[in-house]
Design brief:
Blueprint: H1 2-11, E1 28-33, E2 37-43, E3 46-51, E4 55-59, E5 65-68, E6 70-74, E7 79-89, E8 93-103, E9 108-119, E10 125-134, E11 145-149, E12 153-156, E13 166-169, E14 172-176, E15 180-191, E16 194-204, E17 209-213, E18 217-220, E19 226-229, E20 232-238, E21 241-254, E22 259-270, E23 273-280, E24 289-293, E25 296-300, E26 302-306, E27 314-326, E28 336-352, E29 358-377, E30 388-402, E31 405-412, E32 416-420
Antiparallel strand pairs: 1-4, 2-3, 3-6, 4-5, 5-7, 6-7, 7-8, 8-9, 9-10, 10-11, 10-12, 11-14, 12-13, 13-15, 14-15, 15-16, 16-17, 16-18, 17-20, 18-19, 19-21, 20-21, 21-22, 22-23, 22-24, 23-26, 24-25, 25-27, 26-27, 27-28, 28-29, 29-30, 30-31, 30-32
């Protein structure tokens, strides 16, 4: 008789515990009570009910199930406490915790201690000590929301079988629906091919964007590493995969073979690898784009660097472009070659160093539009000899290199210039014939 009364009393309390269709309340039906049941009436019209020894229940008319060691229901507060080994399952969410409280008035579930919440549609998993779950309900809210504090960890996926997740950790996290995430307080995102650090993070799959602010830093680890920093970093997302990383204001990108600084830098990603880097100066800014590769530098209003499969193959610079090259020699440390024009195109080849590691080497560089070039030409047979100096002008100039030295210069379109050979060595002094014979 007591068990039957318990079932009836609990079933009369509407308790929407998990996300159903918005507006449909979940009336809990107790399937079994393993121990005892009692109820109290602290004030007239207020009845509290308690059941223990292991409680199994389900949400009437749905496939949702609930189990815990005990249940306490408070009539006037309209609150239900599930205590000890709480397990909640429905079609959208799987939740485990040591304790959970459901507040019927605002459709809110508070899960505490050893919380594991799994989104069954996306496969995203949240672990932490505190989680507040707000159910979608007519007149209350139209989208499920979750708030987690005390530095929870999230395995962020698109689908349960989508492979390696992004691991997101922050002091506090907020979810809205399946596709929007906010994180704050020393936020980290990690995967085998990607890592980021920032004070706060936004991921919005509805718009396909992510935003990092507060000393943001991104690192690519898919093959050759790269890093990107800036005042603000934005991510382009497609199916929760990052395909674009943008640094806005005081941007700096660093790769194995190059470094870029500019107001704005975009890094294009495909197959988890860097494919291209774009840099340009912002509107009203005086800071030009600057690229460094080995012994060469390029300055221009905008620069594009092609790195298909993370291999540096070509760079292009536009508007008042200037490239400098410093001779790698202790005997002539101040010799600077430079080439300038309206635009510059530099092409690189891959070669191995003495350790067998591949790196990119500049092979040729082309200037177009008001092209100028100053180059030094050294004698291969005498490393101590002074170099010849060549200054060329034309509509187009191509400089071809052999190793680290200039091999040929081709000038086209109103070509002129000057070539200065080094001064020949002084002739030997004549023999002294004025000396007397002994």
């Amino acid at each position: 008789m007591i068990a039957a009364l318990a079932v009836l009393a609990l079933a009369q309390q509407p308790a929407p515990v998990a996300a159903q269709g918005a507006g449909r309340p979940c009336s809990i039906v107790i399937d079994s009570i393993g121990g005892n049941y009692r109820q109290t009436v602290p004030t007239p019209g207020d009845t509290n009910r308690f059941a223990g020894g292991g409680v199994l229940a389900h949400c009437e008319g749905t496939g949702s199930t609930i189990s815990s060691d005990s249940v306490a229901m408070y009539g006037r507060q309209r609150r239900i406490d599930f205590i000890g080994r709480v397990v909640i399952r429905d079609t959208a969410m799987a939740l485990d915790a040591n304790r959970a409280s459901y507040y019927l008035r605002d459709e809110r579930l508070e899960a505490r201690k050893n919380v594991v919440a799994t989104n069954r549609r996306s496969g995203t998993v949240l672990r932490g000590p505190h989680l507040d779950y707000y159910r979608a309900a007519v007149g209350v809210r139209d989208t499920v929301e979750m708030f987690a504090t005390s530095r929870p960890t999230v395995e962020y996926r698109e689908t349960p079988d989508s492979g390696e997740p992004y691991i997101i950790v922050g002091d506090r996290l907020r979810f809205k629906g399946d596709d929007r995430v906010w994180a704050g307080g020393q936020v980290t995102v990690d995967r085998s091919d990607f890592a980021s650090r920032s004070d706060s993070l936004l991921l919005d799959e509805t718009r396909g964007i992510g935003v990092l602010v507060g000393q943001p830093r991104v690192e690519g680890k898919g093959g050759k590493t790269y890093t990107l920093v800036g005042t603000r970093i934005e991510l382009g997302l497609e199916h929760r995969e990052i395909n674009l990383v943008k640094a806005l204001a005081q941007a700096k990108a660093t790769g194995d073979d190059w470094t870029l600084t500019a107001d704005t830098i975009h890094l294009l990603i495909a197959a988890k690898k860097l494919q291209q880097a774009l840099a340009w100066m912002g509107e009203g800014s005086k800071a030009r784009a600057h690229a460094v590769s080995s012994l060469y530098t390029i300055d221009a209003d905008s620069i594009a660097v092609d790195t298909p499969e993370e291999v540096l193959t070509e760079s292009r610079a536009f508007r008042n472009a200037l490239s400098r090259a410093k001779r790698d020699s202790a005997t002539a440390p101040a010799d600077i070659d430079w080439i300038a024009g309206d635009s510059l195109t530099a092409r690189f080849v891959q070669e191995k160093d003495s350790t067998g590691r591949e790196h990119s080497r500049l092979q040729q560089i082309h200037a177009r539009g008001s092209a100028r070039a100053l180059t030094h030409h050294f004698d291969d047979r005498d490393s101590t000899a002074a170099p010849a100096i060549n200054y060329s002008r034309g509509q187009r100039i191509a400089v071809l290199l052999r190793g680290a030295k200039v091999d040929r210069i081709v000038v086209a379109g109103k070509a002129d210039g000057v070539h200065l050979e080094p001064r020949p060595p002084a002739p030997p002094a004549p023999a002294d014939t004025t000396k007397k014979k002994p």
